[in-house]
Design a protein that fits this description.
This protein has 435 residues and is an alpha/beta fold. Helix content is 35%, strand content 17%.
């Protein structure tokens, strides 16, 4: 069968730009679609292509007409969900191809895709689910899907509710995971460039899911609340298979979520003689508890870390179910700078901020050595605990605005003032960035 895997284009809408002319807040994602490369590696008996519309945003129609796929499978973040609906509608208007959607939004809010232009929804990690669905399509056994007997796959039932069996994700299933199909994104590799870091970057997965459950985060839906470390040998193998790139992003919501795995992986990379520079996600409390592990990683190429500081206010951190504190954040910064590791710091701006809150955050960023502060707006993503907690406060339900740079609930400050303060602070952060 001919299968087209599609990464949606950069999309989403901007309230500050549309209403107030502030055009500096759009998020641009340029990383390679590792999830699709992984899915493709499970479908090697089929003719699989990857179309990365973030790299070539105007090529969907031409590529679709050229390939004439039997199956078109989309991935989507929340702000991309409407774009996938539009693309799937185009597929249905011009062919009999079967349409499938998966990814983080489908995993957290599958009923959103219960629409005519979508045939199947993959919920959670899709490696085995998509492969089993394709096998059922090829052998004309779609009654399996209708009955919900392929775990993690739901047949859409517009006007009704979908039925599916949740897929379990035992760690041993990943021990035999194949090498991601990096070759399928070769035409786009030069575009996987991070302007702020001025580097080309490749991706290697080290774990799926997360051992924590912050209220605002949608990652828990990926692996059913589990944290699944990739086998050490697989990670080393994938690092060796990745096309040449000076930097590697180790894809994991919390790269050192298992400290024993982190230690073993560091040693294995060293023994394999792999010469790479690494960007990882790490929690501040992990840095404080295990500074020796961070130092060991620094010796094999760790250059930058992304830390979700989220807030400078302990009360707000607790409300997010974020297991940390401002004092731990400060201690982590000290340790990282002593080791010469640069810090990309994520902070969440609450729509409830007033001018004093903005002043405090601006002062904090001006007095703490964060090499590249990243500021997002607290967004209740569908399917998260935060969404359930504040659903009655949401004022904007169009998912095009769920880009993490729009307030989709009411702001305490006047809206124009809120976005002006936010945009000014973003501009100051980027102009003072040390990366």
């Amino acid at each position: 069968m001919k299968i087209l895997l599609v990464n949606p284009p950069n999309c989403g809408r901007s309230i500050p730009e549309e209403r107030y002319g502030l055009d500096t807040l759009k998020q641009i994602f340029r990383g390679e679609p590792l999830g699709l490369e992984v899915l493709a590696s499970y479908l090697t008996s089929h003719a699989v292509s990857i179309l990365d519309l973030k790299a070539v945003p105007d090529q969907f129609t031409a590529t679709f007409e050229k390939i004439q796929p039997d199956v078109v499978a989309f991935t989507a973040m929340t702000c991309e969900a409407n774009s996938v609906i539009r693309l799937a509608t185009e597929v249905k208007q011009n062919s009999n191809a079967i349409t499938v959607v998966g990814g983080i939004h489908a995993s957290n809010d599958p009923e959103f895709f219960n629409q005519d232009m979508i045939d199947y929804v993959v919920i959670g990690l899709g490696q085995k689910s998509l492969r089993e669905l394709v096998e059922a399509i090829e052998t004309n056994q779609l009654d399996k899907v209708a009955q919900g007997t392929i775990p993690g796959v739901a047949a859409t039932q517009p006007g009704g509710r979908m039925v599916w069996t949740p897929r379990l994700f035992p760690a041993h299933e990943y021990a035999k995971a194949p090498v991601p199909s990096y070759e399928l994104t070769a035409p786009y590799r030069d575009s996987y460039f991070l302007p702020k870091l001025k580097i080309n970057m490749g991706y290697v997965v080290t774990a799926y899911g997360c051992p924590y459950n912050c209220s605002f985060c949608s990652i828990a839906g990926q692996a059913g609340g589990n944290y699944l470390c990739q086998p050490i040998n697989n990670v080393v193998r994938d690092l060796q298979a990745l096309p040449a790139a000076p930097f590697v992003r180790l894809v994991d919501a919390n790269t050192f979520g298992s400290i024993s795995h982190a230690r073993q992986l560091c040693q294995a990379i060293k023994e394999a003689g792999i010469q790479k520079n690494y960007l990882v996600d790490v929690r501040a409390d992990t840095v404080v508890r295990y500074p020796e592990v961070i130092e060991q990683w620094q010796q094999i190429g760790l250059r930058s870390v992304v830390i979700g500081f989220e807030e400078i206010n302990d009360k707000r951190l607790t409300a997010m179910n974020k297991k940390g504190s401002s004092s731990i954040n400060n201690e982590a910064l000290t340790i990282l700078h002593q080791l010469g590791v640069t810090v990309v710091g994520d902070f969440i701006v609450d729509p409830d901020y007033d001018n004093e809150d903005f002043d405090l955050l601006e002062s904090y960023l001006g007095t703490h050595k964060i090499d590249l502060p990243m500021l997002t707006i607290m967004t209740p993503l569908p399917g998260t605990p935060l969404y359930r907690e504040i659903s009655n406060k949401i004022t904007e339900f169009n998912l095009d605005y769920y880009t993490l740079t729009n307030a989709v609930s009411a702001t305490r400050l006047g809206e124009k003032n809120f976005y002006s303060r936010y945009a000014d602070l973003m501009q100051k952060c980027h102009s003072q960035a040390k990366i």
